[in-house]
């Protein structure tokens, strides 16, 4: 291993144990997952309980009206599977219908950009099929925090303050929910959401008389998609509300849209890299881009892939640019040419165009078939657009900033899961007073251009930025990892994989190490700007490295010392039973738990 030796300092230790590990973007979710493991639940029970807690305690980052993407492997050793909890566009969501409304792009906020909510159904399906707990026990943690309160974090407070004027003028139900009595929340306040607690309790009660655990969960799923929840969602969508394009329009979801959706399991896609099989979600996510980058770098010597050097960072960033250009040209439809995009020959040709200086061009590949789409390249010379922060907080002027959440769990039997829940942010659309949550605006990740593989279409999932990872080494060890952060997610996970697989870093050292990301492609979130050649770096990368990157032609913007990514990860070695975990200090509330 030839990397720059990792700094012996880390913000916290890598946790070690043999019973179970959980890591997430919020300490209450990690603690919940560990509590479930301690009480005899498996990793899937624990992940579901933690996922519902995240809906409550990180309402600016995800909610019941949102979506999730997960990758899981059972202790039985079956092939990893995708947990697909991302709902499609409504049946009436056509490009023509949007153009008739005068739109050239999907709004970043408001009910018009709401797909079918998928997160809750996915968690319930996971609990039914692979968990062991009763719904009432699993969801009880979330009900407790919603009913009895949870601490207001700086992120929640900042988000509400940012959008309070928007709420006051356009979304009065949101204003009432998040500024009771007109008072803005403060850090440390105890926040509650009794309406959401009531919604969760009603889901439990609707199936309480059934004669089996699976039937009780199934009745809750039905109530979500066809009962009181679905009906309340449709009533709320029928009302006209402000969207971030400045128009006032109703949403498009109908009872038929909600009734027709159920979460699913799907096959992963994967690639081999240095003795590790890296599993990702298919072409309706940006996951294949990470596999492309690993393929481009597969034949580089170890010492050339050190992110802590200017030469290593340069090659990594240039590979990122090429893969993300391919993402925008080819990914988003079921018929994406994955075999061609991941073929060694194609990836070698892509690696061959990486030169000694930074490219400022948008350079997708040409397969000789498939999409020829090039997205609109609207420049911004601000190298920290919405994509550097992730899923959106919507400012009063429509500019987006924000984030999402993530969790990983492994249990003593070897069940392993990595999930990135998102959407339904408190700032994404008007609060539904009957239910205690709002809808996602995930359709902003679609394009209003029929030529795009990620074009809006009725019943089609948006190409999503959520992109968890499962890394299975040839020695049998399994790592589950992921992060919030929109377009940055796979870029930061790439750095983690390089530092742990090639560089020999521990989990926490890799998480703590300085991060960087390219912004040299259209942001996946409204208003979808790009910065030609843009490179965003944590200034802890070091003056010499930053100067070296600038000398190579990279337009570098320093973003602060601890600003990029909120990775978490858990790992299990089946030969020894040893487990490890780490979580990110960025954002202050990510923690791991285990023993």
Task: Briefly note the structural class of the backbone.
Answer: alpha+beta
Largest sheet: 7 strands, antiparallel
* Count of distinct strands: 23
Strand content: 15-25%
What value does the average pLDDT take?
A: 93
Helical content (DSSP H or I, runs of 4+): 25-40%
**Gyration radius, to the nearest Å?**
22 Å
Distance between the termini: 29 Å
Low-pLDDT parts are 383-401
Oligomer: single chain
**What is the 3D form?**
globular
Query: Number of helix segments?
Result: 19
- The neighbouring-strand order within the major sheet is 1-22-21-17-16-11-10
Describe the structure in your own words.
A hairpin with a 5-residue loop joins β7 and β8. The strands form 6 sheets. This protein has a 7-stranded antiparallel β-sheet with strand order 1-22-21-17-16-11-10. Strands 9-4-3-15-14-2-23 form a 7-stranded antiparallel β-sheet, covered by helices on one side. The two termini are 29 Å apart. The chain has 595 residues and is an alpha+beta fold. The protein has a domain at 50-264 and 414-445. Helix content is 34%, strand content 16%. Mean pLDDT is 93; it is low at 383-401. The chain is built from 19 helices and 23 strands. 61% of the residues are buried. The chain is globular. α2 (43-57) packs antiparallel against α4, α5 runs antiparallel to α8 and α12 (287-297) crosses α13 (310-330).
């Amino acid at each position: 291993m030839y990397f720059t030796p990792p700094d012996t300092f880390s913000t916290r230790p890598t946790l070690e144990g043999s019973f179970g590990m959980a890591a997430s973007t919020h300490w209450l979710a990690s603690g919940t997952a560990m509590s479930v493991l301690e009480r005899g639940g498996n990793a899937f029970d624990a992940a579901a309980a933690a996922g519902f807690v995240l809906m409550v305690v990180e309402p600016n980052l995800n909610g019941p009206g949102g979506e999730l993407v997960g990758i899981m492997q059972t202790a039985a050793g079956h092939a990893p599977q995708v947990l697909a909890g991302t709902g499609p566009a409504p049946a009436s969501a056509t490009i023509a219908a949007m153009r008739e409304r005068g739109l050239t792009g999907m709004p970043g906020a408001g009910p018009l950009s709401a797909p079918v909510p998928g997160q809750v159904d996915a968690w319930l399906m996971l609990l039914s099929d692979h968990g062991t707990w009763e719904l009432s026990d699993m969801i009880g943690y979330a009900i407790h925090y919603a009913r009895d309160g949870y601490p207001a974090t700086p992120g929640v407070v900042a988000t509400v303050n940012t959008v309070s004027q928007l709420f006051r003028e356009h979304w009065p139900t949101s204003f009432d929910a998040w500024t009771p009595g007109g008072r803005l929340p403060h850090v440390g306040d105890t926040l509650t959401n009794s309406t959401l607690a009531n919604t969760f309790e009603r889901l439990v009660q609707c199936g309480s008389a059934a004669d089996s655990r699976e039937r009780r969960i199934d009745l809750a799923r039905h109530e979500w998609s066809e009962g009181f929840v679905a009906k309340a969602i449709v009533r709320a969508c029928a009302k006209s509300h402000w969207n971030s394009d400045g128009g006032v329009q109703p949403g498009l979801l109908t009872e038929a849209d909600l009734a027709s959706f159920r979460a699913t399991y799907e096959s992963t896609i994967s690639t081999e890299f240095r003795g590790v099989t890296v599993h990702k979600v298919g072409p309706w996510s940006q996951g294949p881009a990470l596999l492309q980058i690993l393929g481009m770098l597969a034949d580089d010597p170890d010492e050339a892939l050190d992110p802590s050097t200017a030469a290593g960072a340069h090659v990594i960033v240039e590979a990122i640019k090429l893969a993300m250009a391919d993402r925008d040209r080819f990914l988003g439809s079921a018929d994406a040419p994955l075999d061609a995009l991941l073929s060694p020959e194609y990836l070698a040709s892509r690696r061959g165009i990486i030169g000694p200086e930074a490219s400022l061009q948008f350079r997708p590949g040409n397969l000789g078939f498939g999409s020829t789409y090039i997205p609109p390249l609207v420049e911004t010379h601000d190298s920290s657009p919405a994509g550097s922060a992730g899923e959106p907080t919507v400012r009063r002027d429509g500019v987006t900033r924000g984030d999402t959440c993530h969790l990983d769990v492994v249990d003593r039997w070897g069940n392993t899961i990595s999930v990135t829940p998102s959407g339904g942010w408190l700032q994404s659309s008007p609060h539904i007073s009957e239910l205690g949550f709002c809808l996602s605006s995930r359709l902003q990740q679609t394009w209003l251009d029929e030529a795009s593989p990620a074009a809006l279409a009725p019943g089609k999932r948006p190409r999503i930025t959520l992109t968890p990872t499962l890394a299975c080494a040839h020695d049998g060890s399994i790592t589950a990892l992921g992060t919030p952060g929109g377009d940055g997610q796979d870029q930061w996970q790439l750095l983690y994989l390089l530092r742990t697989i090639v560089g020999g870093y521990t989990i926490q050292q890799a998480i703590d190490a300085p991060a960087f990301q390219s912004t040299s492609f259209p942001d996946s979130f409204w208003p979808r700007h790009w910065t030609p050649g843009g490179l965003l770096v944590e200034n802890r990368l070091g003056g010499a490295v930053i100067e070296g990157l600038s000398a190579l032609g990279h337009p570098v913007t320093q973003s602060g010392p601890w600003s990029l990514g909120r990775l978490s990860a858990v790992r299990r070695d089946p030969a020894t039973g040893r487990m490890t975990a780490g979580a990110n200090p960025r954002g202050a509330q990510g923690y791991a738990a285990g023993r």
